[in-house]
Amino acid sequence: MSELGIQQEELQELQRRLTILKIGLCLLMGLLALRLWYLQVREGIYYRDLSQTNRTRAVILEPARGLIYDRNGILLANNVPSFNLYITPEDVKDREALITRLTELIGLDGAVVRKKLAQAGSKLMPRNVKGGLSLRQAALIESHRLDLPGVVIRAESQRNYVHGQEAAHLLGYVGEVSPEQLDRDESQELHQGSIVGQDGAERAYDRFLRGRAGQKVVEVHARGHEIRTVSVKKPEAGDDLYLTIDVRLQKLAEDLLGEEAGAIIALDPTTGEILALASRPVFDPNRLSREMTPKQWEEIVQNEGHPLTNRATQGQYPPGSTFKIVMAAAALETKTVDPSTKVRCTGGFQFGRRLYRDWKAGGHGLMDVNQAIVDSCDVFFYTMGRLMGIETIAAFAGQFGLGHETGIDLPFERIGIVPSPAWKQKARGEVWLPGETISASIGQGYVTVTPIQMAHLIGTVANHGVSFRPRLLRAVVERATGRLQELPAVPRGRLEVKPETLALLRDALAGVVTKGTAQRAKSSFVAIAGKTGTAQASALRPGPGELLPKKLRDHAWFVSYAPADKPRIAVAVLVEHMGHGGSAAAPLAKQLIETFVKLAPREPLIADPETPALSPTVALALPERHD
Q1: pTM for this structure?
Q2: Are 471 and 477 in contact (CB under 8 A)?
Q3: Contact, 436 vs 394, CB < 8 A?
Q4: What percent of the chain has pLDDT over 90?
Q5: How many helices (H) and strands (E) does the chain have?
Q6: Nearest of 592, 95, 18, 576 to residue 320 by alpha carbon
Q7: Among candidates 596, 572, 597, 598, which has minimal Cα distance to 586?
Q8: Which of 175, 283, 518, 555 is 20 to 30 A distant from 439 in Cα terms?
Q9: Residues 409, 400: contact at Cβ < 8 Å?
Q10: How far apart are CA 43 and CA 506, in angstroms?
Q11: What confidence score (pLDDT) does residue 298 get?
């Protein structure tokens, strides 16, 4: 082939390749154009929003919880400033390195941080991994901020209980919302990390106290740190609560219990308002409301004294001789006896092959129902129980509120046991034995009650058979409007007991203090009526000269009211393993009642002479918030 032919052939090959290249370039440009159209037109809104999300973040602003006051305007719970450490998982590329660095700086618990960062939820949502940082710790974090991607310190409010452990079981404590709580219908406004009431009034009235969270939209840079604020929606503080308790009586009730386990409850029998509610042992609500390690929590939960148990509403004890109030009413109403009927007490009651002993070894002699209550004669009530039967006893116990919730506005109330053949068959798969009725007749055996039930019971007797639901909340102040709304008393009903039966009971209860088993409750300036009880806590009985270990000794009861002729306060005292109610419990009730009378507690809700008379719609000049 000539040289010219070769050149022409090479030129054709080059043109062919150029044509293929042009076609390829056109296809590539077409694909790029198609992709650009897809990204900018078809998916443009999505990627614009994604870009905006990467540039800005929505930060939840936690609201300040509402304040809690006693009936006289004394502050019980407020909020104090706190430095909290947050981490946004999306901004953390190397979690272990970050955790190691934070541990070096402020001693964080790495396991806790890992658990919180691993929780379900948006990775763009900051996680509160450590609350209550000291000023020094916060300063350390801020000084190393550039080396800590996704980490931010926020100044927020932290719950504070002004009087420490005082009224701990009544007020409760707060904590981070649990996954189970988030799933509830009433938790729709909450979010992961929300602080909610976990016990006591904090839990019962969380819907008022927690307020509404706000939101701040901020611009962040590549490491997740804030550059500027784009917009802010302020949080709304929670409403303030005024409780029914008088903090002076509350403190006295707790001081009276001292280091002994037990409960003291004082209430107004004409309204159901709780004036004091003490339970021992106690816990520190400030400690529980702040960051705790699993070990610290375990120490509290496994404490042998069970400090988290509110013995006033959750402790279940045999009522002992305080149950004789129910027995006397049942015997009179069923005409098992009349006021003049007498039973001879020789110190024991023979039933079958067993002798049921009276607390007084030599016996009380002839006893009518009044004398049997005054001297707490066991044999009289053994006899009544045998004649009436357990079904009648159970029916009257239920009418007096035993075996049922009182309805007090505290969570986790327990109901005790009012036994019957049906109950025993269901609970234990066994038939009822006649001898068990004898034990039940003096508040032993399977019978158990809570101190709040006994306070409600004696309050109902004091109020001539009319009962009110025990309650802690007296008024709510809306923070948005400053308006106060008082809550009315809630009637529960009237005992189906004749007035003359109640009159006999009240006369006998007054005699218990003036000449019976509770003479140590006698006061020089106020007439007190009541009933003692000694509840057996163990089947073991000491031999001659022996002493039982304290944990096996009897519980001491005293239920009372005053003034005897026109009651304004009802008190139930239960002291665990302290023996006789007349010597261990009655003097405590006396001191509380006398203090109540001296304080003249019928004072205005808010102790301010400029405050107008209360009404559900009046706007008040409120005490300054301490947030």
Answers
A1: 0.84
A2: no
A3: no
A4: 56
A5: 23, 23
A6: 576
A7: 572
A8: 518
A9: no
A10: 82
A11: 85
Token pair for 13: 């090959």
- How many CB atoms are located within 10 Å of the residue 191 CB? 14
Which H, E and C letters describe 343-402, residue by residue?
EEECCEEEECCEEEECCCCCCCEEECHHHHHHCCCHHHHHHHHHHHCHHHHHHHHHHCCC
Does residue 321 carry a catalytic annotation? yes
For residue 243, the Cα-to-chain-centroid distance in whole angstroms is: 14
Q: Structure tokens of 603?
A: 């004072």
Q: 389 is written with which tokens?
A: 């039967």
> Containing H/E element for 560?
strand 555-562
β-pairing, 274-280 vs 262-267, is antiparallel
DSSP 268-287: -TTT-BEEEEEEES---HHH
Of 157, 289, 321, 439, the active-site residue reads 321
Instruction: Please give the domain boundaries of the chain with CATH numbers for all domains.
Output: 57-243 (3.90.1310.10), 244-310+455-463+494-622 (3.40.710.10), 320-401+416-449 (3.40.710.10)
Amino acid identity at 122: S
| Residue-wise pLDDT tens digits, 451-497 | 999 999 999 999 999 999 999 999 999 988 889 999 999 999 999 99
Choose among 312, 320, 276: nearest CA to 451: 312
Is the pLDDT at 594 greater than 90, yes or no? yes
Q: What angle do CA 87, 90, 96 make, to 5 degrees?
A: 65
Query: Lowest mean pLDDT: which of 35-39, 172-176, 360-364?
Result: 35-39
